[in-house]
Structure formats: structure tokens, C-alpha cells
Amino acid sequence: MGGYYGLAVLVGVASLLTTGQCDVSCSGTDGHPGQAGAPGRNGWPGAKGEKGEPAARAEGPVDAGVLLMLKGEIGSRGLQGAMGPKGYRGDLGPAGRPGNPGRPGADGKSIGHGQHALQQAHSASSAIRTDVSYPRYNQPVTYQNTVVNKPGDFNAATGHFTCRVPGVYYFTFHSVAKVSMCLYIATDAPFNKLGFCDYNRNADQVLSGGVVLQLAARQKVWLESFRDQQTDPGVRDTREKQIIFSGFLLF
């Protein structure tokens, strides 16, 4: 009896299992996709790559665009170009700051007073014309012999005395000839000319003259022959003649 009871229980359980199974029409619906997750963190930087091989020189023609992208070596300095035109003058800038004082100069030399000063500033010259030809009219008289020329203010070749030290000078001349002679003591303006003539025809003609002049620096003084009453034979005379021209600084 007990065996039948156990068999009955197993048959009941089997019936229940058979009755609990579901066909296809009773399956559930699909669920919705979930939301995307947040982005992950950046990864660590990768290792540095190895250096590439140098570019090989191409044989034959090379693309000009490629050459522009390649950096060549620095070339040598070219020649300087022509100077451009002068630019416009800019506005005057503001005054700069005063510079540093310069170093003191060397001590000057005192020229003293009176006689000592006269010795420091001196000028004296004397020259002789020995040419037997008659001096040309309106031309400075030139000289063959220089007797005195200190410190060198007189030029015998041109006949000019050139003032170096401004001051008061005395000039004089003496002429000896067999014919009549007319001579100017001439200088630059404002003095101009002072003339002397001798017409004594009975003996040697002796002519002399002198003048005191106040000269400025670079002013010139000279003797000059001029035409007055001389005869043509006298102008062509070739006998012995002498003209002495002298001058010196007074003060």
C-alpha cells in the first residue's frame, strides 16, 4: 500500500510538470538598449619615434615645389648694391643731453708785450729784379733775386706779397734805368694803386716810392708797371735795369 502511494505521488508530480510548460505565444518582449557610458580617460603619450633616414639626392630633374620646401645651406655674402636715392629729411629731433666736458687743452704760449710781441709776429721781405727787359704794362713785376723773405710771405715768381699777420706795413721800391719808368704800388681793395714816374732824360733814371698800408690777412701787395709818357724806343730798351721792392711789418 505504501508502494502504490509513492507511485501515485510521482505520477502527480509528472502531471504538474507537464501542465506547467508554455508554448511560443507566451514569451516576454525585448528590453530597451541601455544609455552610452561616459568617455574613458586619455591614454598615456606614446614613446618618441626613431629619427628617419636622410633624403637621398634625386637624379635628374627635381620638382621646383619640392626644392622650395627643402632648406639649403647659407650662401656667401653678395656684392653691395648701388646706393639708393637720398631719402627725405626727417623732422628735427629733440635736443640731446649735454655731453661730458672735454679734457683741458695744452697750455698756450704767451707772446708777451712790447718788443717781445713784435719779435713773435714778424714779416720782412726784399727782392731785386735784374732782368734787362722793360717790365710789361699792367702786370706784376717779378724778381730774379730774393734778399730777405722771413718767414716766407713774399713770392718772387709772382711778385706778390701775401699778408699773413694782419697789421700795419711799410712798402718801398727803388728803380734805376736808362729810360723813363712808371710804377704802381698796388694792392687789393680798398687801397688799390699809388703811382710814381720819372722823366729825367739827361742821366740814369732813379725812381723811388713808399707807402704805409694797413693790411688784412691774405691781402696782397705788388709792384706794377703802367704806361704814361714813355716812348716806344724806351719800352724796347734792353740796357741794364734794376728794381728793388721791400716791405716789412711795423706793428
From TrEMBL:
Residues 94-125 have a biased composition (Low complexity). It is found in: Secreted, Extracellular space, Extracellular matrix. One of its GO terms (cellular component) is collagen trimer. Residues 1-22 form the signal peptide. Keywords: Complement pathway, Disulfide bond, Extracellular matrix, Glycoprotein, Hydroxylation, Immunity, Innate immunity, Repeat, Secreted, Signal. Residues 28-59, 80-125 are annotated as: Disordered. It comes from the Eukaryota. This is C1q-like-2. It comes from Siniperca chuatsi (Mandarin fish).
